[in-house]
Amino acid sequence: MMPYFTMILQPIKHELKIRFRYFLSRDLMPKQSYCKITDKVIDNFRQNYTNLMKNKLNQLKITIFPALAILLLGFGISAQTPRVVDKPKPTATPIPTPTATPTPVPIQTLPSLQSKIRLAVQRPELRRGQIGIKIVSLATGKIVYEQNSEKYFMPASNMKVFTVAAAIEKLSPNFKFVTSAYAPAMPDENGVIKGDLTIYGRGDVSFSTMFSENDYYKGLDNLVEKIAQVGVKRIEGNLIGDTSYFRGFYIPGSWEWDDLQWYYGAGISALTFNDNSITLRVSPGASGASCIAEILPNNTVIRIINQCTTTGQQRALKVTKKLDRDVIEISGTMPAGDEEYSGRIAVSNSAALFINLLRQRLEQKGITITGQNSVINTVNSQANPKIEIAKLESTPLSIIAQKTMKPSQNLYTETLLWTLGEERGDKTDLTKTSAEKGLAVVQKFLQEIGVAPDGIVQSDGSGLSRHNLVTPGAIVQVYQYMAKSPYAIAWNASLTIGGMDGTLRNRFKGTLAEANVRGKTGTINQVSSLSGSIKSASGENFVFSIIVNGVNPTSLRVKTIDEIVVALADFNGKSEQ
Predict the structure, then answer these.
(1) Do 371 and 353 form a contact (C-beta atoms < 8 A)?
(2) At 561, which CATH number?
(3) Structural domain span for residue 43
(4) Element (H, E) at 547
(5) What's the CATH number where 287 sits?
(6) Is 294 helix (H, G, I), strand (E, B) or coil?
(7) pLDDT in tens, the chain (577 residues)
(8) 301 near 356, Cβ under 8 Å?
(9) What are the helix (H) ranges across 239-329?
(10) Who contacts 172 (Cβ-Cβ below 8 Å, separation ≥6)?
(11) What would the DSSP string read from start to end of 17-66?
């Protein structure tokens, strides 16, 4: 019996020891009590078991197992495989995470929008200036806000809105400028042209780095390729530039003289090269020596008089362009180690520059020219019998319109105005200049779309003239018309985009107007303007014109305009309220 008893008792004793080690590890019982309690329990169990076996073996289940059950329950022992069971810990009732209820955005009313605009324009700093505003719902035509909308304002480059819209409508987005090469006859079997090669320009502005990824010569090389394709190898005569397509003095009469030195005041020509400007770079030389000056692209038409010296602690550089000559005078000083100066200078005789560089490219192609370079501007210059041996077409007007409006390019706009005069103006009237005929075409277009005859007073195409006067209402009418025009896509593509490109690339960032507002800016001394279209937060499209005159700080003018435009973008109501 004892072996059997021992066999049963051994795992129980083992389990008890495990349980007591667990209790000891948790400091629930003094260590010295462990052995005593264990031995006592085992002795009692042995005595009870012996007595029971002497009486009845069948009472084993009745007596032993209840005792075992009591022991097992009393000490938390499992009859299964020995394992340590942690004392149950109370389970914390999870606290539900509160869900934030979004605060409803109040729907703005039209009066609240109008109040925001009034607050923007009534700030004390603007009291001595004049502000003209017109805002219209494009869908309904309802006037959302207006102030002095039928008063005259100087528009600055907002004048381009009228000129470019008329050009897109009257010439079409697919219109292309053509530059022709004329000769007395086609080249003979040896590739010789016996006589002059005349390049007849019609105002193609795409002979420019703006259209060729900063390659000065790409446009010229395309023309050279056209000439070479017909077999020309030798020109026994002069290379002539003919600018007679346009008529009139190359500088608009109302432009101010201090604008004419720089690229944005470059004159108009039928043969245009690189926006009729060159890049001047001036850097310091060795101490006490002359400054280093260079022009790009290199040519023999522009003459430099360099009197600048490398000396001193501060830059005192002066650059002066003769108004009627292609002579650039550089004077003053530059400190040793100073940063390079770079500026874009207008060219007076752009046709001469065009022919000078074209000759370089022809000769590099292996075409010999025996005569000289010259430029003519005679109305009857095409009267002599000549044939067109080659021609080069420009990129479409739709692309030129983008290159005009987004960076606000004055030369391109004036060229479009003059082209309108020659292509759509009165061809029989030889008493008017190209500009005068172009202005008449624009005026007729505006009358056709409903602009009052006195809605604008236009002196040039670009807005550089301070003689221009427009009403905000007239500008809005153009935008309303062009939004529904068959050429609306080309028109919208020409407009600068807020926070993205052109003259608006650094404005409206981080607002609902970013990548939303499209339009045309304008800036001259004391004048800022912005007109265009924008979609409100509720999805309503507005067209607008905002012009500020007579306010000195440019930043204040721009801030006021931008506040109004952002208010339109943020408006989550409807104008029909």
Answers:
(1) no
(2) 3.40.710.10
(3) 2-74
(4) strand 541-549
(5) 3.50.80.20
(6) strand
(7) 444 444 444 544 544 444 444 443 444 344 444 444 444 444 554 555 455 455 544 444 444 444 444 433 443 433 344 444 444 455 556 666 666 666 777 899 999 999 999 999 999 999 999 999 999 999 999 999 999 999 999 999 999 999 999 999 999 999 999 999 999 999 999 999 999 999 999 999 999 999 998 899 999 999 999 999 999 999 999 999 999 999 999 999 999 999 999 999 999 999 999 999 999 999 999 999 999 999 999 999 999 999 999 999 999 999 999 888 999 999 999 999 999 999 999 999 999 999 999 999 999 999 999 999 999 997 655 556 689 999 999 999 999 999 999 999 999 999 999 999 999 999 888 899 999 999 999 999 999 999 999 999 999 999 999 999 999 999 999 999 999 999 999 999 999 999 999 999 999 999 999 999 999 999 999 999 999 999 999 999 999 999 999 999 999 999 999 999 999 999 999 998 6
(8) yes
(9) none
(10) 397, 487
(11) HHHHHHHHHTT-S-HHHHHHHHHHHHHHHHHHHHHHHHH-GGGHHHHHHH
The verdict on 144 and 33 lying in the same domain is no
Beta strands (DSSP E) in 284-413 are 292-296, 303-306, 309-310, 316-321, 327-334, 341-346, 368-369, 373-376, 387-393
Buried b (16+ CB within 10 A) or exposed e, 233-250: ebbebbbbbbbebbbbeb
Per the structure block, which two tokens stand in for 26? 């948790």
Count of domains forming the chain: 3
Q: Which amino acid is it at 252?
A: P
**Gap between the Cα atoms of 465 and 253, Å rounded:** 9
Q: Determine contact, residues 325/346, Cβ cutoff 8 Å.
A: no
Amino acid at residue number 266: A
Does some domain include residue 236? yes
DSSP class per residue in 522-543: EEETTEEEEEEEEE-TTS-EEE
> Residue for token digits 């600068």?
496
- DSSP code, position 86: P
